[in-house]
Amino acid sequence: MSSHQEAAPSHDGPKVLAVSERSPRVRSIAVVRPGEPDVNYLAATAKGLAITLKHFARNFFLPMKSADERAKPGAPVDETWKNEIETVQYPEEKVTYPERFRGLHRLMLRDDGAVRCVACMCCPTACPAHCITIVPEESDSLRIEKRPAIFEIDELRCIACGLCVEACPCDAIRMDTGEHAKPVEDRARSIETKETMMARGIQSVATQGGEGPNWRETATPPSK
Amino acid sequence: MLDILIAIIDFPATKWLLLIMGLVMPLASILTWMERRQSAMMQDRLGPNRANIGPIKLKGILHFIADAVKMIFKEDFIPANVHKGLFALAPVLALAPVLIAFAIIPFGPTIYPHSLTSTIDTYALATAPGSYAFADSIRLQIFSIDFGLIFYFAVLTLANYGGTIAGWASYNKWALLGGLRSSSQMMSYEVAMGLALMGVFLWTGTLEPGAIALHGASATMSPSNPLNWMWLWQPVGLVLFFTAAIAETKRAPFDIPEGEPEIIGYFVEYSGIRWGMFFLAEFIEIVFVSAVIATIFFGGWQLPFLDADGFRIGGYIDQVTHMSVGGTVLHLPHLVVVLLQAGAFAGKVVLLSMFQLFIRWTLPHMRADQLMNLGWKWLLPLTLANIMVTALIRLLFL
Ligand code: SF4
Ligand code: SF4
Known about the structure:
The complex is a heterodimer of chains A (224) and B (398). Chain A is of the alpha+beta class. Chain A has helices at 3-6, 41-61, 67-71, 122-126, 163-167, 194-199; strands spanning 15-19, 27-30, 106-107, 132-138, 146-154, 173-174, 191-192. The radius of gyration of chain A is 29 Å and the shape is flat. Chain B has a 3-stranded antiparallel β-sheet with strand order 3-4-7. In chain B, strands 1-2 form a two-stranded antiparallel ribbon. In chain B, strands 5-6 form a two-stranded antiparallel sheet. Chain B has helices spanning 2-10, 12-42, 63-73, 84-101, 122-127, 148-169, 173-196, 198-204, 209-214, 230-233, 235-249, 272-297, 334-360, 368-397, and strands spanning 110-111, 138-139, 306-307, 310-313, 316-317, 324-325, 328-331. The termini of chain B are far apart. Chain B has 398 residues and is mostly helical. The A-B interface holds A 36, 41-42, 45, 48-49, 51-53, 55-56, 59-60, 83-87, 89 and B 38, 40-46, 239, 358-359, 361-363, 373-374, 377-378. Bound molecules: iron/sulfur cluster (2 copies). One iron/sulfur cluster binds at residues 117-123, 134, 167-168, 170, 172-173 of chain A.
């Protein structure tokens, strides 16, 4: 048992005025509001002003924390005469994203640099935003039946759910680039094409269509 | 030539332009940036710091220019079914009274153009005010009227019509609620606000802001002595007036007509520069309240220990013989004194405006009934008590 479940409630709860006979959980309770004599506007105002003034003075006069310290949310206050401002100045400074952050898509590559996707149409089927367009074509390789001639994702419609990545049977599409969708000036530019997504692509560590040694035994995973 | 120049400067409209364009408008616009920046600093954020013209960044001060450009070029959208005339009139009604009310504020000392480069002889000034050295004097106050504070209450109350009419003309239930709240809020603070200054009136015997600023509580201290200013003799009046005045600016904790989290307020249907006028009126009201408080409670344009002839430490000018008594005096030319004193007024206004921003970003927003409670059950009795006690002290000791 964790301790917080056993901890007694810190107060006795609201005062119950009446309880319903049919369902005892329906009760009317007395609402406790601080009465007039308890309200001391002036003292409370002074106290609040002291707090905000302290923050203001500290943030106004002391130098900023380093970008690294600001990027860590909830980092303890630096004792060495720095202010408490947490703002990360975005385009110049960035917080490191969690590893599982779903960024822009990329199309993974085969050993020879060809696209890994076999145009199985699993991802456009799974996509809840209907933003993946694939036009398949016949592949040059005898082992592989199809490949995408066109593979487009409209990043404006994409809700970054990651279902396409889950749906893909052969590790051909991933969202682990750590990049945001870029701001664009017209909507057509927000469409990612096969080429742009392959440009971000890397070689997959999965085996090539069942061929070759198992990567689990041989290969060290390539870095991003 | 000089006569014409002096006559032009002495013209009320020139002085008004000088005050509005030289101090009020720049300060109010910069306050819009300062408010965001200061509140950010109070909340451990950075605030707007990006606006720039090329490489000129100035920590983001230029945001107010960006705001103005944005508001001017934004579409001036007038919704269907609004009352077109009143809709257009309301922002003007909100803005104009505040600008008019500045007429009573003394924003600098009297300038004697013929003795700008010499030190003022206070004895000669008191005994022979008609001599050439003191001729053609320019009073840095647009209208010096005996009923100055009454004028202020009367005119600024008109600003409430701006909000109420905007709410009525907008054909929007939220706006109407905001407009009603705006007029009902006035009920809560207006009485207490007027009465809070009655203590000052009893003490100084005048309602003319310039005279209140110069009033000395004691003859053995010159008016520029901070101990002679009304904050020390009317502390209760100061707190009560400040509270009521914040309610007048319609900002948190008394932002009931606007009520951002609930009804957006009477200007919900406004956009572009019309909304900008409401916005500016709010900030000009902050500057105005600061100017009034600086004038009445903090000696107006006086710099501590700076008399007309220079810094005077320890001594005073005898009110009867007009001789300088004791102390050391650092004589300064009249021009320097004037600039220092006008600067002191601007400085006081800036500091008091910043203090209002502190209050606005510290206190939570009140409900209408809480403000009613505060206004009628706390402020009003306290102002009445303040008047009684002040009157008793005047009667018994002075
Ligand atoms: S992340 Fe979701 S919405 Fe975006 S392309 Fe993949 S499946 Fe579609
Ligand atoms: S990316 Fe994967 S799921 Fe989508 S079509 Fe290609 S192989 Fe199929």
